[in-house]
Amino acid sequence: MNLKYALALLPFIAIIIGLYVFSNVWITTAIYHGGMLITILVTKSFKQVRKGWSAPWGRGLIGGSVGVGLFFLFLMPRIVPTTVGEQLVSLGLGTTALLVWIVYFSLVNPFLEEPFWRRTLGSDRKGIAASDVLYAGYHLLVLALFVTWPWLILEFIILLGAAYLFRQCVRATQGLLIPLLAHLIVDISVSVTIFLLLS
Questions:
Q1: Which domain holds residue 90?
Q2: What is the CA radius of gyration of the chain?
Q3: What string of H, E and C letters represents the secondary structure of the chain?
Q4: What is the pLDDT along the chain (199 residues), one digit of tens a residue?
Q5: Is the dihedral of CA 124, 129, 130, 136 positive or negative?
Q6: What is the pTM of this model?
């Protein structure tokens, strides 16, 4: 098996073990983030985190991410079931733990995912790449716990588009700065929306 595709299984393994076997978000996060951190340190994928500013790409992706964040702010109250609070508690995220996890996840996850998915698993391919599909696909394992399948299809399309655009930006600018900033905006927006829904 190609090493890149073996590494791409990391989030799937983390989610299956953490969420579906142990029902614990912290275990999932530790496996996923720990695996990504080791990978990007070994491959030195983090070197381009501060490189790659381009005004057209920056305006497009960062502006688009603000739009996606607002879209989720509007959409999530309509698609998240009223039992989501109970589900999160069962996964180890009571009110205080949820706030800690949201702050950690929002501020750390983009700095791990962008080097991992866009550089270590990245591709110079101009069309949709396997890494784009796998990136969008792993999110569905988490989302399937909270939303119905029609929303999963919409989420997959949005995430596939984001993965493709982020990767094309990295290919064009030879840096991770813009996708990282855009990813940060989306993660913070979604996390804040979830917290507001439950508070």
A1: 3-198
A2: 16
A3: CCHHHHHHCHHHHHHHHHHHHCCCHHHHHHHHHHHHHHHHHHHCHHHHCCCCCCHHHHHHHHHHHHHHHHHHHHHHHHHCCCCHHHHHHHCCCCHHHHHHHHHHHHHHHHHHHHHHHHHHCCCCCCCCCHHHHHHHHHHHHHHCCCCCHHHHHHHHHHHHHHHHHHHHHHHHHCCCHHHHHHHHHHHHHHHHHHHHHHC
A4: 477 778 999 999 999 999 999 999 999 999 999 999 999 999 998 888 889 999 999 999 999 998 888 877 777 777 777 778 888 889 998 888 989 999 999 999 999 999 999 999 999 999 999 999 999 999 999 999 988 888 899 899 999 999 999 999 999 999 999 999 999 999 998 888 877 777 6
A5: positive
A6: 0.91
Tokens 């396997």 sit on residue: 130
Question: How many structural domains compose the chain?
Answer: 1
Task: Give the sign of the dihedral formed by CA 44, CA 162, CA 134, CA 195.
Answer: positive
Provide CB contacts within 8 A for 157, sequence distance 6+: none
Question: 67-87 burial, b if ≥16 CB within 10 A, otherwise e?
Answer: ebbeebeeebeebbeeebbee
What are the backbone angles phi and psi of residue 118, rounded to the nearest 5°? -90, -20
